[in-house]
Design a protein that fits this description.
Length: 344
């Protein structure tokens, strides 16, 4: 947890209170709310649930509950600011250091929760044009994203092995997988620009009905990041609708998450960790899924609404970005550090 906190504080060290309290987009929280939420989560799971102590500030429980206080109203909430926020974070941590970690599961859960929120905060900083120096741009890859490698047919073990894992990564199970082809690297900015120049945002036949409606409603006509980015770096901040249309334009498709995990664990993929990679899969539980330690982490998001992303990004801490980790979001969202890997 110490390393996670050092990362968190380091990422916001260049920002003043006004920047921390600003709402940069309705789909994102003020950074100060995120910081308070990180501390409240730690107080709940380490000090209260594990340590058996009362919450340090029970009056903050609803405010920092992600479901009770959704993103759309967080900017108007009376969240902790300035010195009061810093004092709360420090006081929670001081209490947590005295709690016996037991088997270590909840300490790891809290540390990874904080690391995931720092990536969300980096998304907010990118939208607000206040990213810390050196963050937010994926490294180059050795390829354009159109070269595919073959993965032979055969069973694959899907899900996390022994050790810490989120509930949606369990239980580990064997899945028969037919042979398939998958991109050796993620798709680059240069390759994406060819898609744009070839009518990618005007040719209706490449888009699903829902994707085209979204594009028209929000007047999505190009990808400014691809135009301004390093031609040899992966395209980033791509929605699922855009990723799917791009794949269709190549006569290809997005991989399933089972295909992605098989290829990743068989060392078939290069460039993992530059950008989150959209898959064609809906987010759901594996056979035999059991919610743990609370159903709001995964289960409430299951169904045909959220698409799965795999691999991690330039904003993801390596402690989180395992080959088994399942990220998910709505197909319209592009604030993530998300890109594309093709399949056939």
């Amino acid at each position: 947890m110490v390393q996670a906190r050092e990362r968190t504080l380091g990422l916001v060290a260049h920002l003043g209170d006004e920047a921390l309290e600003r709402v940069v987009d309705p789909i994102m929280s003020p950074l100060a709310w995120d910081l308070g939420h990180i501390a409240a989560y730690e107080d709940l799971w380490i000090n209260h649930r594990l340590g058996g102590r009362p919450l340090l500030r029970a009056d903050l429980a609803v405010l920092y509950d992600a479901f009770e206080t959704p993103r759309a109203i967080r900017g108007e909430a009376r969240f902790l600011r300035g010195w009061y926020l810093r004092e709360y974070m420090e006081a929670v941590r001081e209490r947590a250091l005295d709690v016996d970690p037991g088997d270590g599961f909840l300490h790891e859960l809290v540390a990874r929760h904080e690391l995931q929120h720092t990536e969300t905060m980096l998304q907010t900083m990118r939208l607000g044009d206040v990213l810390p120096d050196g963050w937010g741009l994926p490294d180059r890859v050795d390829g354009d994203g159109l070269e595919l490698v073959e993965v032979p047919a055969g069973p694959a073990l899907i899900g996390a092995p022994e050790g810490f894992a989120y509930d949606n990564e369990r239980p580990r199970h064997e899945v028969p997988v037919p042979s398939f082809h998958i991109g050796r690297t993620p798709v680059t900015n240069a390759t994406w620009l060819h898609f744009c120049e070839g009518g990618g945002y005007v040719r209706r036949e490449w888009w699903t009905r829902e994707g085209w409606a979204w594009k028209e409603d929000y007047d999505i006509t190009h990808h400014a990041g691809a135009e301004a980015g390093d031609p040899d770096a992966p395209v980033v901040h791509v929605s699922w609708f855009e990723a799917d249309a791009f794949a269709r334009a190549q006569g290809l498709r997005l991989p399933t998450e089972v295909e992605w995990e098989k290829a990743a664990t068989w060392d078939q993929l290069e460039g993992i960790g530059r950008v989150w990679e959209w898959t064609s899969s809906w987010f759901g539980g594996y056979p035999g899924f059991v919610a743990h330690p609370y159903r709001e982490y995964s289960e409430v998001f299951f169904g045909e609404r959220y698409r799965v992303l795999r691999g991690g990004s330039c904003a993801t801490d390596p402690r989180v970005a395992t080959p088994h980790f399942r990220n998910w979001d709505l197909p319209t969202r592009s604030q993530l550090f998300s890109g594309v890997r093709l399949a056939a």
